Amino acid sequence: MLPHAGRSVSEEWIGLTEDINSARRRIGEIDEQIMKLVCERIREAEKIGRMKRDRKVPVRDFTVEAQVIERAERICEMNGIPGHIGREVSKSLIMASLSVQTSSDISVYEGQSRRILIVGGNGKMGRWYAHYFNTQGHEVVINDIERVPSPFKFEPDLLRAVSMADVVILSTPISVTAGIIRQLAEASCGATVIDGCSLKSPLINEIRFGISRGMRIASIHPMFGPGTRMLVDQNLIVCDCGDREAVETAVSLFRDTSLNITVIDIARHDEIMGYALGAAHAINIVFFDMLSRSGIGAAEMDRFASTTLRRQISTAADVARENPLLYYEIQNLNSHRDTVFSSLARSLEAVRKASFSSSADDFIDIMNRGRLYFEEAQNV
């Protein structure tokens, strides 16, 4: 760029720098105004959250959320800015507002207070259940093979603890839960029993035995981990084992939160989990195993990472830090594992062949099939 008449290159550069710095200062001022307004918006959302709880109104109103997003898109487009920017900003604001309204620390339960026994309550997920049910106003009792410091009452005798409980939550390893269900059934347990296992097929025979003995039983599967505090957009699966009263009890314990609750027949659970957990875990385990054998260190790989690779590494790293025995059980104990791994192998081979083909047609077909699959999900 040539300097203006009468000005040297250095003077032109100094002027340009001053203009840029002035614009940056103005952006800083605007950012400060934006963040103050965001904070003000969140405080107003907190007020709305309290009013909703006081008046027993559900936290989420999807119609209002859609209106907020549409309004943001329209404002951006009216000002010559792409509408998707308004969509993303408004979605972030909605999530922030929901977060302050739906923390698992906030009591939103409107039903009767129950005495809830958590078997395995000193484990990671067991402690989450204990904290959650306590904040909802229930009386929590812990039973576990080990006693550790805890704010909750501890009862080492399982059957004694069960005899005084309204609801029993089994937060125990998959491999031992079936035995506990049989033990409770043989003891004529009068409480509603709810297991939280990631797989259900290893439990079905004992669940049927319990039902035949008159035990009220349902099954849940939180699709989130023990570090979860905000329940917004988290999924909870409730499995119907044939006892509608028990299903209603399970649903009622979580209904007034922002959890997405889906009720399915217990027979379908593991088929779906074969893909939702088994395949998803396996893909990430294969990915980080491949990287660990590549001879390229993680730090070096990061220096060459694309956006896609960074996202994949982040997810794979989270999987690598999980409990290996739990993840082994999720693979090993699923009765649908053969179908899932055969399907995974077929897809991998299809991608390999398409990638090596002299024609791009098969590869394009695979990509288009994936695009249509996710587009259909967005339109549901």
Automatic annotation (TrEMBL):
Q: Which GO terms describe its molecular function?
A: chorismate mutase activity; NAD+ binding; prephenate dehydrogenase (NAD+) activity; prephenate dehydrogenase (NADP+) activity
In what residue span(s) does the Prephenate/arogenate dehydrogenase domain sit? 114-380
- Positions of the Chorismate mutase domain: 14-105
Which of UniProt's keywords are assigned here? Oxidoreductase
Gene3D superfamilies (UniProt xref): 6-phosphogluconate dehydrogenase C-terminal like domain (1.10.3660.10), Chorismate mutase (1.20.59.10), NAD(P)-binding Rossmann-like Domain (3.40.50.720)
Record has Oxidoreductase as a keyword = yes
Q: Which Pfam families match?
A: CM_2, PDH_C, PDH_N
InterPro entries listed in its UniProt record: 6-PGluconate_DH-like_C_sf (IPR008927), Chorismate_II_sf (IPR036263), CM_dom_sf (IPR036979), CM_II_prokaryot (IPR002701), NAD(P)-bd_dom_sf (IPR036291), PDH_C (IPR046825), PDH_N (IPR046826), Preph/Arog_dehydrog (IPR050812)
Determine if Oxidoreductase is one of this entry's keywords: yes
What does the entry give for GO biological process? chorismate metabolic process; tyrosine biosynthetic process
Annotated protein name in UniProt: Prephenate dehydrogenase/arogenate dehydrogenase family protein
Protein's organism: Candidatus Sysuiplasma superficiale
